[in-house]
Design goal:
heterodimer; A: alpha+beta; Ribosomal Protein S5, domain 2; five-stranded mixed beta sheet; four-stranded antiparallel beta sheet; 4 helices; globular; B: alpha+beta; 2 domains; 39% helix; extended
């Protein structure tokens, strides 16, 4: 049943997304939960909220969003902190948090296996968990990771080995309404032209992911509609 | 069939509590004078209990039916008993009534475990355990460290439990609660102090280098009985784990990667597994594998760690309940049965995983995702269609306005002094506007002149003037030399 489609288009881009899967509502305690799988990379996300907020963290006109990334081994480091911030800022951009003032939203992301494109997997899992929790959002978002190999070839959704061999690594969060870039996180050196190329690729790839979101939600509510 | 059912009921009653003795006697009576009608009622009853579990309207109807049948069918005493039963059921929908009905909230019997599911991750030493809705992940990793001075030729076992806020909103990040300390201590006693792992085989160079085996257990969902799930996950992960092989040549220790040499599994003597018992009403009722709602109302907890050979590795009683010797013995008997079942389950899961890896099939979390649920969906690898991408990108790049030119060389007021900002042309849009306004406010009202003026500024050598009020930003030049 599994087929590998390795297509190199004429431009020299190796634009494939690994097989991806998602399961929603798999934990009983959180208000919303999801697991997102991209190839071997898998992430578990849980959302609590809107709930009571600590006075020190209270914001008077919107909900306080807290993002926690849990590593598999050991304590979270600076890298996780920066990823938390990337995810939080993306989520804040898409959530309509002003509808729940003075409340707290907590998003917990647990790494289950890291095989590259982890940040984009975090973003996708977060979006699915928010959908499961039924929180109001102005748009959906997804994450796409592009790696630029040493020969200039752009690889989307790279594995850990491809990431290691790459010259630059770019992750974008794309919104679903206008396909605009909500967040970008880059590593390594690349030209302006390559950046634009990667954004264009991510925008195209995001359509596939949003299509997947749509199908999974359709499937989920197929019995209630 | 019916008689068997009653006999079973009777047995459970006697074993479980003296209070239900009466019920048992009546059961036997019914057995003796049984008709076909009872059989059907019992079947309906059992079906209802299985399907609906706890208290529901259909159950009420079922009991009504019961009552009717007994009134028609049997003697006054039985009738009274059922009346009492019915009354209790209607008035007090509590957990205790469920115990009277020999039924728990989720439809289990007193000694039943919830469904256990063991899955392994993609890499070695990663294990997920589902105990009903409780979910736990364990990951084993290893590291070369210097051993403790008191035990120079023994490896080190390290257990780290993580009560992630994912499991329950009550768990706070980075706070070591009483529960965490209790679980961690129990896990250490269960796995380290029972010496189930051969720590001497983890020694590489005596007194210098030994392997430290680190077990990280993450709680993912808390629905009661975290300890049992944790101990199953930890021991399964340890049995699944493989450490890299090492070679020693003289003083040089080489760690081989998995490609160079096959990794080595840990040597495990036995598998201690923890079984939890909860007690209610000062030990009148006993439950195996309490769920979260049962844990909230329990009076006492007894945890017994035991291996397949019926050797007890640790016993811990908490909650301040006085237990009789018989109760502890009975619990250990139950534990021995449960432990042998769970050990078989772990062995089977390990074997399945080994087989899957050997055949080169895919394994890991991605494979364990249920396909048939409607909450889950999987997509095959997809390609993204690309057309005119290079052109599109270059169009954007060309279409972008070139940013304002920056000063080509940084201004150096004196050798050895670096400076940011002052004296340079500001390229920020906002600042530009302010700049313009200032200029407009001045003598020159026309914008074109402003531009000219700025052009002049850029070309002309301006003397560097540092305007600063704060003491921190003051530039102190030690050896003033004119540039």
């Amino acid at each position: 049943l599994r087929t590998t489609m390795e297509v190199c288009s004429s431009d020299g881009f190796n634009v494939t997304l690994r097989e991806f899967g998602c399961e929603q509502c798999l934990l009983s305690r959180p208000d919303g939960s999801s697991s997102f799988i991209q190839g071997d990379t898998s992430v578990l996300a849980a959302v609590y909220g809107p709930a009571e907020v600590k006075v020190s963290k209270e914001i008077y006109d919107r909900a306080t969003l807290e993002v926690v990334i849990q590593t598999k081994v050991g304590l979270p480091s600076v890298k996780e902190r920066s990823q938390e911030q990337c995810v939080r800022e993306t989520c804040e951009a898409s959530l309509l948090s002003s509808l729940h003032p003075r409340s707290s939203l907590t998003l917990i992301l647990q790494v289950l296996h890291n095989d590259g494109s982890l940040l984009s997997c975090f973003l996708n899992a977060a979006c699915m968990a928010f959908m499961d929790a039924g929180l109001p959002m102005s748009c959906l978002f997804c994450g796409v990771t592009c790696a630029i190999a040493s020969d200039g070839q752009v690889i989307t959704d790279p594995t850990a080995t491809q990431e290691k061999e790459s010259r630059a690594l770019l992750t974008f969060a794309i919104d679903s309404t206008e396909q605009k870039v909500l967040m970008s996180s880059t590593k390594g050196s690349f030209s302006v032209h390559e950046l634009q190329e990667c954004i264009a690729i991510s925008q195209m790839a995001s359509e596939k992911i949003f299509q997947f979101y749509r199908e999974s939600v359709q499937r989920r509510y197929s019995k209630t509609l | 069939m019916c008689q068997w059912w009653w006999m079973l009921n009777f047995y459970v009653c006697i074993v479980d509590s003296p209070f239900l003795w009466v019920y048992g006697v009546i059961c036997i009576q019914l057995c003796v004078c049984d008709g076909l009608l009872h059989f059907y009622v019992c079947m309906v009853d059992a079906l209802c209990l299985c399907v609906y579990g706890g208290c529901s309207i259909s159950m009420c109807v079922c009991w009504m039916l019961h009552l009717y049948v007994f009134i028609v069918d049997c003697s006054i005493s039985v009738c009274l008993w059922w009346m009492l039963y019915f009354y209790l059921f209607m008035v007090d929908h509590s957990i205790y009534v469920c115990f009277l009905c020999l039924q728990r909230l989720d439809g289990r019997q007193t000694y039943d475990y919830r469904k256990i599911k063991i899955t392994f991750g993609t890499d070695y030493g990663c294990c997920f355990v589902d105990l009903g809705k409780t979910r736990v992940m364990a990951q084993v990793s290893c590291e070369l460290v210097t051993p403790k001075e008191s035990r120079p030729n023994e490896g080190i076992m390290f257990f780290n439990l993580e009560l992630s806020p994912m499991a329950s909103p009550a768990f706070e990040l980075g706070r070591s609660s009483e529960l965490l300390v209790k679980l961690n201590r129990q896990l250490e006693r269960c796995l380290r102090n029972s010496r189930c792992i051969d720590t001497e085989s983890l020694c590489v160079v005596s007194g210098e280098k030994v392997w430290q085996i680190r077990v990280d257990v993450h709680m993912l969902n808390h629905d009661g009985n975290l300890m049992d799930a944790t101990s199953i996950a930890a021991i399964a992960a340890l049995s699944h784990f493989k450490r890299p092989d090492v070679g020693i040549q003289g003083d040089v220790v080489t760690v081989y990667s998995a490609q160079e040499r096959d990794p080595i599994a840990l040597s495990i003597y036995h598998m201690p597994i923890c079984v939890s018992f909860s007690f209610f009403q000062q030990g009148t009722y006993l439950l195996v594998d309490p769920c979260e709602r049962e844990e909230r109302v329990m009076d006492g907890l007894l945890m017994i760690a035991m291996n397949k050979h019926r050797e007890i590795c640790s016993i811990q009683s908490s909650g301040g309940i006085m237990l009789l010797k018989e109760q502890v013995l009975r619990c250990s008997k139950i534990a021995s049965v449960k432990v042998s079942e769970i050990t078989d389950l772990i062995a089977k899961a390990l074997e399945n995983d080994k087989k899957a890896r050997k055949e080169g099939r895919k394994c890991g979390f991605a494979e364990s995702m249920p396909q048939e649920r409607i909450t889950a969906l999987k997509n095959l690898e997809t390609t993204v269609e690309m057309t005119d991408l290079t052109k599109q990108a270059s169009d954007i790049v060309e279409g972008v306005e070139t940013p304002a030119e920056m000063a080509l060389s940084p201004v150096v007021p004196a050798p050895g002094v670096g400076q940011v900002g002052a004296g340079l042309q500001n390229a920020w849009g906002l600042e530009d506007e302010e700049d313009e306004e200032e200029e407009v406010d001045g003598d020159e009202p026309e914008v074109t002149i402003v531009a000219e003026k700025r052009g002049n500024k850029k070309k002309g050598e301006r003397p560097v003037v540092i305007i600063s009020d704060s003491e921190e930003e003051e530039v102190v030049i030690l050896n003033p030399e004119s540039s």
